Amino acid sequence: MTGRSNAARTHRAPARRRPRAVAAVVLPALAAAVVCLLAGHGLPGTSGQAATPAAGAGKPEPHRAGRTSGASADGSTSVPESGPGTFTVARADAHRTGAGRPYRVEVEDDMGVAPDEAAEQIAAILDDERGWAHGAGVTFRQVADDSATLVIRIATPDTADAICATGGLDTEGELNCRVGRTVAVNLKRWQLGSPEFAGPPEEYRALIVNHEVGHWLGYDHRECPGPGQPAPVMMQQIKGLHGCVSNAWPYGADGSFLDGPKVP
Fold first, then answer.
1. How many domains does the chain have?
2. Does some domain include residue 220?
């Protein structure tokens, strides 16, 4: 994998424990701590140093070679359904976004995504004027050590489900989530986008990052404010736009915050 010689290994993801319930919703008692489609718990891991598992973590299911899921419109893209459960930490010097809140990017091994390239895309999203850094409101800086207060992990669907299950969520192999300070980004969504989103996967990645980081910053889910209006970034757009227009950013081009009614 590109960039792995300059990257640090970190621990395994927790064992996949997918609940039987089909809805990926947060139990009321966990709503303040765990929000589906969000940013999350950081797990220890410093350059050149093995990290210890998070509380409750175990060994993931073995990698099931050959299992893939999802395809682009022309059928040319597929993603592995499961991976080894080990991650590579992106280098901290891939891109700088200021002297703000420290975050770390980790990518599951052997799934075709280069950690440093993914980190550069994430850094660009976090630094965008339409993002949470609008007006220097929130700034971020990428790190590769335990100082991270936010960890963004790109993982195969099975591994993402295992991470989300530690917070009581069933993400059904389809959704992203936030558990504590860890954001689990489902590889299927990272590579293929969403059929509900009118834009390329690259733009949908901005929605994933901005939505999850928004939860990490304390924002709750929102509903569509009205037909034809931009969907709030905190809206679960993958579940339908309800008359709104796809949107990946917290702020509009005019600098206005794109909000909507709070989900009851």
1. 1
2. no
